[in-house]
Amino acid sequence: MSREIIISTVSFHLPSRKETLESNLERAHEYVKEAIKRKSDICCLPEIFTVFGVEDYTKALSESVSRTNSILDGFSKVAAEGKIYLIINIPEKEGDFIYNTAFFLDRNGELVGKYRKTHLAPGEEEKIREGDTYPVFKTDFGSIGIMICMDIHFPEVSRIYGLKNVDILFWPTMSYGPSDDFLLTLLRSKAMDNQYYCVASNYSEIPYLPGKEMGRACVVAPDGNIITDTGYRPGIATIEVDLDEGYEYWASGDYKKKYPRLKECFYKRRKPETYGELVKIN
Questions:
Q1: CATH number, domain containing residue 138
Q2: CA–CA separation, 24 vs 28, rounded Å?
Q3: CA distance 146 to 161
Q4: Are 196 and 223 in contact (CB under 8 A)?
Q5: What is the pTM of this model?
Q6: Are residues 224 and 256 in the same domain?
Q7: Which residues neighbour 173 within 8 Å (Cβ) at sequence distance 6 or greater?
């Protein structure tokens, strides 16, 4: 048995405040159309791509939230035409609050649900309110979860999704790291510890030099290997994966029968009764 799907993920170029909401939307649509040409089943765009690279962030944020529905309608049409799942991370306003929200659209362009960024970066709370749930979205090939940017630094998030048995965890972000390997090591550890695929969608900057810019869009397999990426340039990375391809546990005999794959070993040998300190409120 196999569940072979094609995943695409996007890296935006982040210029020196020369973009507009319209230009950001235009290139986002171009990338999605390219993902469709590549016969992708699902495509992820970077964190709140409508407002980054715009000279006046506050003005761009206000304009973006005023157009959330029309922006989603535009992507909904593309998703339906291309029969593709889309992760669209844009600002959203509800009542008096603005959220950093990843919307999930299905192959018919219908809104399946949304994830609101839970862990805000320092200073982000001045304009954004945090979310407080970790929804799982069902597809015709399996289950997915979403975390956004700062969420990656809190291992509880990725483990919750593992316990909810997702096949893929998507990570739209606009992240820097102190070293070339910083962000990739974080992402690879999530994939290995939880035994699912991790997909990052990030930004790139000039110069395109390792360790000098924000990172890359990439797909990481459950064994921690980066199996496709955009390098340190803007673009789209696409790969076919088999979600049923497990990684065998190295034991033998009865233990091999009990734990045929690393996933069974890792999850069945958890000791949640010893983890109480994790949920104590300081």
A1: 3.60.110.10
A2: 6
A3: 9
A4: no
A5: 0.95
A6: no
A7: 46, 47, 148, 149, 152, 183, 200, 201, 202, 215
Residues 6+ apart with CB under 8 A from 40: 6, 7, 8, 84, 238
Same domain as 161, residue 95: yes
Q: How far is CA 274 from CA 168, 261, 270, in A?
A: 27, 24, 9
Q: What distance in Å separates the CA atoms of residue 263 and residue 246, rounded to the nearest whole number? A: 8
Task: Say yes or no: 175 and 132 in one domain.
Answer: yes
CA-CA-CA-CA torsion for 68, 73, 74, 76, nearest 10 degrees? 120
Q: Are 148 and 173 in contact (CB under 8 A)?
A: yes
Query: Residue for token digits 């496709």?
Result: 228
Q: What's the length of the chain? A: 282
Query: With bands split at pLDDT 50, 70 and 90, how would you rate the model's confidence at 191?
Result: very high
Continuous segment of H or E residues that includes residue 174: none
Residue 75 sits at φ, ψ, to 5 deg, of: -70, -30
Are 211 and 258 in the same domain? no
SS3 of residue 70 by DSSP:
helix
The single-letter DSSP state of residue 40 is -
In tens, the pLDDT along 87-125 reads 999 999 999 999 999 999 999 999 999 999 999 999 898
